Each structure stands twice: as C-alpha cells, then as structure tokens.
Amino acid sequence: MPIEVVLLFAWMLVIAFLAFIACTFEDLESDIGSQSNPNSQVQLAAQVGQINRFFNKAISGEPLSNAMYCVTAGTIAWILLMQLEPLVPGEEWKAAVLAIPIGVLGAVAINMIFSTTSHCGRTAAMKRFEQPIYLDVLYGHLIPIGAHAFMTTFCITWIAYIQSNIGTLAGNPALDHPFALPLLCFVWGITVGSIGSSTGDVHYGTEREFQDRPFGEGKRVVYHGKITRYASCGVRTQKDIAGFCAKFGGPCTGMTFGLIILFTNWTTLVGMQLGGFLPNLPAFTAIGDMAAIWTIVLGLLIVAALAVGNLIFVKWVRKKCGPFVGV
Amino acid sequence: MTVTPAVVEEEAPTKKGLSFKFPPEETEMGIIAGIIGAVIVIFTGLPAVIKGVGLILVLLWGMDSVRKTSKYGLGTGVPSIGVLSTGYGVVGALMGLAVAEYGRVGQLYPAVLLGVIVMGVIGLVSGAIANSEKFIAMKIPRLERGMMELGMAGTLAILLECSIVTGSLNFNAVVNQVMNTGIIALMFIFNCFAMLHPYNACLGADERRERTRMCGVEISGLVCVLLGFVQLALGTSPLWDSVSLIVFGAIIFAVFFWKFIKACMDECYETVGTGMIKTIE
Amino acid sequence: MEPVILLIVGYVVIGGLLACFAAHLLPVGGAPAAMGTATGIATGTVQIMLGAAMTGLFTAASVDTFTDSLLLVTLSGAVGATVMICVVMFMANIIYGFGAGIVPVSGRVDVDPITKEPQAPYKTPQCDGHGVPIVVFVSGSLGGFIGGFGGALMYYTLLNYANFSAGTAAIGAISIFVANAILAAYNIRGTIEGFHDPKFKRLPYALVASFAVSLLCGIVVSLTAILGGTL
What we know:
Helices cover about 70% and strands about 0% of the residues of chain A. Chain A is an all-alpha fold.
C-alpha cells in the first residue's frame, strides 16, 4: 500500500480520536452550565419554589451554540492562517499550531460572554419566584465552562483543519475536502452539539438532577422541577455534576460522536480503496462510481449491524429489568 | 428546550438611568430599522461604521420580531424562529446579490432590495400557512407579520454583512470572498444569535423589553468586531475603515454589556455575594 | 424555459418535501426524553434533523468529489445521515439502560407493531414512554435516510445544475432545509414517536406548507442562478 494511502487512514484515526475527546468535553461543559434539556428543570425549579444554586446557561440549544463557538474559532484561525502561512512555505502546519489555539481562545471568550448574559438575564426574569443571583455561582462556573469549552472547540477546529487539508497532509492535495475551514467547523459544531444534547443529557437529566428518586424509572411529571439541591456535603452547584457525569455520561457521548466520525470517514476511505480510486484519483469515471457504491454498501452494512445490536440490547434489557414493579 | 411562559404584561421600569428607549414601539422600530437598513444597503460606498449602525438597527428589529412571535409559545423553543429567519435571509441575500448588477448606478445598487421584498413575500406565505386554521394552525396573533419581518430583517442583515466584508455587492466578489472562504457560516450563526439569544436569555415571567434589547445591541456590537477583523484580513477596504468598525463595535459591546448586567443585577430579586438556599420543609 | 430550470425547481421542492417528511419520522422527545418521561431522542426536532443532515451533507460532499452521478451522491448522503442517527439512538439506549436503569418502551402503542412485545407493563406511571424501542428505532432510521437524501439532493442540485460553488451550494441547501424542518417542527409541536404516532396524521398539513415554501425558494434559487450568470 502506498504511503499516501496509509497516511490518509492514519489521519482519519486521528480525527476519530479528536472527536471522542471533543464530544466528551462538550457533554461535560453543557452539564456544568445546565444547558439544553436539563436547563428546563433548573428553570422550572425556582418556579415551584425550589430556590437553587445552579448555573442557568440558556444559550439556545447545544447545536447552535457549539456551531457558534466552532465557527468563531475557525474564522479567527482562518484569518491568522492567511497571515502566517506565507511565513512558513512548505510547512503550513506550523502556522496552524499557533493559529488554532488563538482562535479557540477567542471562541471561549465569546462562550463566557454568552453564558454570563444568559445566567443573569434568566435569573433576573425570575424575580417573582425569589431566585437571587449568587455572584459566587456566576464567577465560579465561568472558568470550568470556559476550560471544557476550550477542549471541545479545540478538537473540533483541529478536525475541521485536518479534513480541509487531509490531502495536503497525506501528500495529495486533490483529496482536500471542498468545504472551507469555517464551514466545516459549522458542520461539525452542529453535529457535536446535537449529539451532546441528545445522548449526554440523559445521564445528567434523569440521574443527577433527580438523584433522590428511585433508580430505574422515568421521572414522573409530578417530580418535575423538584431537583436535588443538596450534594453529599453542602449545597449542590454544578461543579460536582461534572465529576459525576465524567464517569459514564460524558465518555458514552464522546464515543457516539467518535463512532459517527469514524464510520462516515472510514466508509468513504475504504470505498475509495476498494473501488480502486486510490492513489491515482481518476475522478468522474466508472472507478469513481465504484468507490461511491462501495461507500454506500459499507454504510448500509454498518446501519444493519447497529439495528441488530439495538434489537439484541433492547430485548436483553427488557428481560433483565422486567416489567415496572413500583407504585 | 424550555417552556415559554404565558404572556405577562410589561412592568414599568423601576430604576432610572438604565432604561434604553429607542424607538419605543415595535411598529416604529420596524419602519425606522427597515428604511435605514434599506438605504444603507443601497449605498455600498459608505464607511463600514455606518453599515455597522444599520446592522445593529436591523438585528434589533429582527430581535423584536422574534420576541413578539415567540412570547406566545412556539412549542419548539425560541431558537427555531431565529434560525428560520436566517435561513430565509441567506436565500434572499443570494437572490438580491444576483439581481444587484441590474439598474446599478455607480456605487448604488437599488435592485438588491428585490431580494428583501421576495423574502418578505415568502415569509408572509409561510406565516399565513403556519397560522391558518386549515394547515398548521399555530394560532399566534400576527404571526404573518412577524414572519414577514423576520424574512426581511434576515435578508437585510446578511446583505449588510456581505457589504461590510466585501465593500461592494458584486455577486462574484461575494461568492469568492464570503461563500468560498466559509465566512458565510460566521454570518449565518451570528445573525441567528443576535436575533434569538436576547429573548432566549431573558425569557421568564419578569422579562422586560428594554433589558432584552440591551442584550441585543450588545451582541450586535460583538458581530461588528468580528466582521471588522474579517474585513481587515481580506483587505477589501482601507485600514482605517476596518479599525474604526472594530473600535465602534468594541465600544458598543462594552457599554451595553455593562448596562445589561447592571440592569439584571438591579432588577432581580436580590444580588448576593454568596448564601444558602431557602429550606423547604 | 430551459429544462434545467425545471430540474432545479423540481429537485429543490422534492428535497424540501423530503426534509419535512423526515422530520415527522424522527422520534423526538425533547426535554421530557432527557428526564425519561417521553419516548425518543432527547432533543428538539430541528436540532437532531440538522445534525443528521449535516453529517449527510459532509458525506455527500466527499463523495461528490469523485463521482458525478446524482443517485450515488444523494444515496451516500442518505446513508451518512442514517449512520449518524442510528449511532445516536443506539448509544442513547445504552445510557438509558446502564446509566438510569430505564427499559426502552413506547408510550403511544400498547404492543410494539414490529416485535409484538407488550409495552404498557414496562412503563412508569405518569410517563409517556422511555428510551428508543424497536419500532421507534426503525422509524428514526427511515427518517435519517430520507432527510439525508433530501439534503444531499438539494446540495447536488445547487452544485451541479445551478453551478454554484461548493460553499454557496452548501449554505443554500442548509438554509432551505432548515426552513422546511422548522415548519415541520411547528406542525409536530413538541414530541413525536414516529410513523405509529397519532400526531403523524398531521403530516399533510406540514407538507402543504413545505411545498409552498420550497417552491418559492426553488424559484428564487433558479432566478439567482440565471441572473447571477452561473447557469
């Protein structure tokens, strides 16, 4: 196998690894700020009289907010890359090593600005429910939110950078993805957010917010808003929620996004290899069509495997847990 | 995904000096922002700061429309309507840019407003269908007008941003410098946020329009700063133009961020350094 | 009128209708699903639809660099979106099972239409189902496939028939897709389980809205292509 092809597969694995880290931290970041789904309970808590010390980070849904951070980071990085790349001809990656962290820092600053406005705005709009603004909650959560968001945005921006330059990095510029860096950041920002919101929030929402309710049942409507407000020691804030979710919910969410990135890139690359498209790239010929067909077939096989896996898992968990026995 | 509470009458502002009352009413805001925005879009030779002022007005108009449509509860959260507005805006801006060359006089591009009008029509149609009893039946008062305004405000905002970044409204220039570089993603997402975030962030029983609008202006200032940097990097206009836009945006952002946070802390139930929570028996 | 204009308008309308249809097929639970109170994926309709369509768009754009067949590009976009949605639903079930001890169960039907297993005894009282049971998984995979197909179809049309650049085509396709998905979300109002849900019968209303908006958007896009000189 020629070295270019091996390098392509190697970069693809790097991307999948970065995706795993990105989505793990994305889930933890949204848990620290109680963004997205669990936010509805924090919002409701004060209205049913449960005054709490939770951070109310209501920056729309996670997909849009993550797209915003990633696009900001991507744009600032792109601006810097335009200035820095001519300084290191032939070794453009050296410019990226400097440009991407700076861009991500800008994105983190924007994240913290939006977090502040949403926490203050939402709490001020709950005046009649007697929910005060605790300044230590406001200041104390901004740094953990920023730190986790830095990891997410950093990994996503690197994914976008590698994908928009994968051909150049592997030795064949024709394989670069047609989308520009900020647009790829947008695409993966939306995806990472929608996964972090749909998968990771379950573990925080059902388990941590209602930890004093029975394990193994859905949270009944009468419980809604009555979140657990006390930690094992003292009043609960969201800083100890990250520690809880980092054990199970975060890694699971990370694995979801990692698998998605791995599968979508892997099917394309293996399809190219099986169709005979690599390393000569005869585009728009029968070979190219063959590569596309292989991509589709492999994707369908993965879908079938997932469907069967889900069938087995659901049957198993139904047998293991059995019918509902509580009252 | 939060439940939008029922409509609550606005309370009179309690503290003076922190109210932000320009222009006081929603219809006046729409007319003023629409006309000023349209004029600024046509004159592409204006300095970027003036376009920035137009952008702030237009985004504020969009934010007002989001507020008045979504305070009745959309069923899917506030963000969806802001995204809808920007989605329409991108399509309308493409249309406007394509017809811009026709009827051009020097640096004037009056034909570009065709895109704004077309998007207003599409917004009206979708609003009428969404509100009609026969179809989706959302039963939101004045949704037709709200969606029309959202389509127009979204288009004007994207056009103004394109005009700031490229310095003209030439279709090929915009495609090369905005679409192919991916800057359109920045415009898309920040348009969304400037329209949806203020109301989303201030949502609640004691939401107040003036306070929400401060947040809107603050985000628009942030957008100006970012666009200024993009303009600087693309080198489409003289240095002073970009720098003045960045300085202007930064000042707007700082002033209104401070005002907004101050207003929140003054108007909330209580601002305390730290404290225990109320015990429930 | 040139036939290619008809093609552009037609494909944009089809893509928009498919986006609207797919949004009704996806099992969306919203915030209640994150509390284990409702069946489906724990996020909003627009959010998960966008996430799936983006993955599909990425795959379609990759495949489009080496083939010019409409069917292959759109199918690969569809498969990309399906892979995304399947992984999400599978992992969500794992978290429901191991993290919260909740059995996936449908709240809208008493017997699963596919596996014929009883649902009601497994359900917590006062809840509307939990997790992603089999019938919902099938419905969601179909929704991902159709949505990805619609998104990729619009991207391909704008790229190869209207001759836009890759960036313009992507953002144009996203914009039209978003508008249709949001109209569908307004029609759904909150949560839906899939094709077996009573709310699914509201689908024709959303399709009318989606048809009108997509038709107008299609005309606007083809006018853009003609007047902008790319056609």
